[in-house]
Amino acid sequence: MSLVGSTMADDLAGLPHTRDDLSGKDRKRVERVVEPTTTFEAAEKFEAKQGGAGTSTKMVNRDSLSHFNANLTFKEEETFKLGNALFRKLWVSSPSSTLASDGLGPLFNARACQSCHIKDGRGHPPEGAADATSMFLRLARPARTDEERHALESYLAASLPDPVYGGQMQDLAVPGLKSEGRMVIDYEEQLVSLDDGTVVSLRKPSYSVADLGYGPLDPETTLSARMTPPMTGMGLIEAIHPADILVHADPDDRDGDGVSGRVALARDPATGDIAIGRFGWKAQNATVRQQSSTAFAGDIGISTPDVPAGHGDCMPSQTECMELPVGIQLDLGDSEAPDPVLELVTFYSQNLAVPARRGVDDAQVLAGKQVFYSLGCTSCHVPKYVTSRKAANPAHRFQLIWPYSDFLLHDMGEGLADGQQVGIADGTEWRTPPLWGTGLTEIVNDHTFFLHDGRARNLTEAILWHGGEAQNARDGFAGLEQADRDALVAFLNSL
Question: Cβ(124)–Cβ(116) under 8 Å?
């Protein structure tokens, strides 16, 4: 697995830059289909079915993000439901009489996947309560040795942990063990005046940790708050052909539009291969399985075949934690969540359906869509793709989907910077989040908090926090009349 002499350019060159899954005729057809629209009098063909044939057309309610892809087979529906049960499963500490459920922690942030991904939707900051279950602090520090630098450069590690507290601050612990600490958020209100005289208050957060249980943090450790993202359409994102992500990358801004997205790279722990990072706030994970296994380890402290750390995120210096028993049952496998547990949770996560659009032909929504395009938002929030014919699951193959993302890393400016390197992403860069399902946030999750740390209390605030490569689009929004701003928000709420 050595990458001596390898560079990122070499790694990118090793990825497919053309659609090797299509005939010449199909390639031309796909290029026509995904061409950005220039007319806004009516909805585009198939625009309402933003998740392709798997789009959920179920009633809009709190379960709107929790349905399975509509084009799964009957057998796959059963697999999805088994994965759902494991996704909701509450893990317990070891030793326990429930042998298939023990192994929690010993340090952890949640007891179940569903505890963070509430109704499979968006997490929230701990507003007015101590509940920080769906938001935590990611910890990372700079490399100090050649070995550490090599680990980052060769994608063997996405970040380097605090020497005492590991990769994230865990505010819960099994009985008899101290937790690591408690996240503290202080908000400062900042008034922003728009061109028409409207004043919007943005809240700028600062983060610290109280009640540290194991001594001080390393002086170079950075804190980055992360809110759990919605799980919408993850299998379809995985099915986008690499060439269709690479084609949007413009790291040197050769077209001069001020937008210079970079491809994130990651190493798939299941195969050891280098692939495009597509998941996580900084695109540090290449596959849904990788996203699932790292969450099992970091959030719940459960080992899997891909991340076999029985003590989760406990560090060697946390001797009390390392001395506690783990939940591995050798007759079931060599990890606490062996396959098929990881496989089933991965399948569930890959097959949560994208909800159908609402109001695609509504006049205000169409006007907002035109504003979205005219401001240049589609430079990063790329509207549509046709997935690969070679996708692992037939349900994901050759589907016209509308995620509104390029899945690239962009400099979002100092206002959103966390100063933390993750993978190749630096302290100002974030992955463009897909927008499908955005308008169901309040219905599903009872809030409208957006961005990586929930600082934005609504979509208007989220847009106004954009900086860096998105500064021009943000300033264009600030210069709109109220009716046009309302139309843009109506468009986003239709997704």
Answer: no
